[in-house]
Amino acid sequence: MAKDFSTREENYSKWYNDIVQRAGLAESSAVRGCMVIKPYGYAIWEKMQAALDTMFKDTGHSNAYFPLFIPKSFFSKEADHVEGFAKECAVVTHYRLKNDPEGKGIVVDDNARLEEELVVRPTSETIIWDTYRHWVQSYRDLPILVNQWANVVRWEMRTRMFLRTSEFLWQEGHTAHATEQEAMEETYQMLDVYADFAENHMAIPVLKGVKSENERFAGAVETFCIEALMQDGKALQAGTSHFLGQNFAKAFDVKFADKQGGLEYVWATSWGVSTRLVGALIMAHSDDHGLVLPPRLAPIQVVIVPIYKNDEQYEKVRSKAKEIKDRLRKQGVRVKLDDRDTHKPGWKFNEYEFKGVPVRLAIGPRDVENGTVELARRDTLSKEIVSMDELNQTIETLLVTIQDALYQRALSFREENTRKADSWDEFKRILDDKGGFILAHWDGTAETEQKIKDETRATIRCIPFEDGSEEKGSCIYSGKPSKRRVVFARAY
RNA sequence: CGGGGUGUAGCGUAGCCCGGUUAGCGCGCCUGCUUUGGGAGCAGGAGGUCGCAAGUUCGAAUCUUGCCACCCCGACCA
Fold first, then answer.
1. A247 Cβ contacts chain B strand, under 7 Å
2. CA distance A151 to A146
């Protein structure tokens, strides 16, 4: 049967959507710009949540929950913040419906207008800082290290499954500190947590760095980010950690009595990652056979497919398969035995390839005789016959090997697609021919960055922490002196 | 909000330019038998307001007008 994944060279967009659909991750909903996350897609998100949540707890954070609705007036308290989000807010203006007097169904009841409109949170800084005002009086109340798992709404003009939807799931950490230094350390620490998660769980290498002024979070003093490179050569911001200074403390009047008896404004950070990470996972590892999941995040790490010709064989093979399943489960491997009789083995092989299950274990009458099984790797699509006796060890090793191989593959891809550009022509040529990350000199001004964006759609993804040691040069666009190279790319 | 495109069965599509039987095909679905180590085969079956509305015509999936929805490329953005 022909597989009609279109080649990625022709249309990455279609390739991506096909994977989302055929792996059963999500589908578009009746509501414009929103998606339904299906059970398998949600299971991946749950794995991410579990790993991240543990990392947050290990760094001293606790979870809490704040309201979905934010009074409109809260937004106007921080000037940059309101400007950044004003254009994409969903606003609740009424609280009641009624039957249309002219019999045309249900209409909004104009008599039920809210005195103050409520904004559906696009992010929660304002309502959280309004709350923190009551929580903080003394330096003894600090720090506050709180995280929230929630949904947010940003009324985007154009959407894409997982990568940009009108509503999305995320976590947002909001911390309050007594000193600038402590807040800054928190900002860096959480960026490191994100980079650790991206590289060691998602198997996606990321660049850590600071955002330029143009790309900075609305209301932040400094925005740090991790940037990943997708297989189509576009960059994806995979996580952000913001140093908010005293901006929100001042806007919401959050002060504390310090040890010396003075009254000081609190220092703040916020940081977040979203279901966009599921999109990153898809774009980073998938191939023309479908999704490829790193073992650490795969809801199913090993799928067992029994093969048989008749009832007698079925019983033998299935009891052996069950035995293997129990053994692996006992060892902590997430294993599924697919003993459905409604689909043939070949069908199942393809299905689990779409779904990106890292290891497939096939067992048939021949294997039962020989004391072997067939193991197939999703990342390389290679197969080998292994002994049943050492299976637990073999699989444990294999899962680690696959996790590592995926990271190495993604890292090689990024290295092959990171290029230096030393002239404006070269810069434009690389962008159009190959994409990827481009290291180039920049004069440090917002005007130049904007002009480059207008002409090429490329933006500064970050000013990376590493690789700053290079010789000085001149700006690729303006020719003015530049102290260091920064990372440009077209981005999602 | 600009530029382009598409709406025909659950999904993918042919037919439209040049109006004319009962709208065709593939996948999927249902039934039966044979099958099961890479998307099974054969036989039979169910499933359609041709996006919506109006117009032209003896006759509209096909022509005209209006509307709606979705997709792609931009602007906006995680």
1. no
2. 16
